[in-house]
């Protein structure tokens, strides 16, 4: 599902206009992004937790030349699925 499809489904389920649904989805994405930029964690009970993980500096290799390179330390967004989402994706068999 792409963002446009998500917005269309959101509009349909909430009976909002497409423009209002687009604004709502973009606002949620903006809030999560702003909080992660500040280093905060965003948890949505049952769905999951968005956080920032730190990657240490390390050595790597250029795949074309085989030359050793330094890879700088960085931060990366991380998502951990919540219990409700996990059980929806992996339902227990009877």
UniProtKB/TrEMBL annotation:
> Keywords in UniProt for this one?
DNA condensation, DNA-binding
Gene Ontology BP terms: chromosome condensation
- What's in the GO CC field? cytosol
Q: Which GO terms describe its molecular function?
A: DNA binding; structural constituent of chromatin
> PROSITE patterns annotated for this entry?
HISTONE_LIKE
Family recorded in the similarity comment: Belongs to the bacterial histone-like protein family.
Q: Which PANTHER family match?
A: DNA-BINDING PROTEIN HU (PTHR33175), DNA-BINDING PROTEIN HU-BETA (PTHR33175:SF3)
Write the protein's name.
Answer: HU family DNA-binding protein
């Amino acid at each position: 599902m792409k963002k446009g499809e998500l917005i269309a489904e959101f509009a349909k389920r909430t009976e909002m206009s497409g423009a209002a649904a687009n604004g709502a989805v973009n606002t949620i994405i903006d809030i999560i992004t702003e909080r992660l930029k500040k280093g905060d964690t965003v948890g949505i009970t049952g769905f999951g937790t968005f956080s920032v993980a730190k990657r240490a500096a390390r050595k790597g290799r250029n795949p074309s030349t085989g030359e050793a390179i330094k890879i700088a330390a960085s931060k990366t967004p991380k998502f951990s699925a919540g219990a409700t989402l996990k059980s929806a994706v992996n339902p227990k068999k009877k």
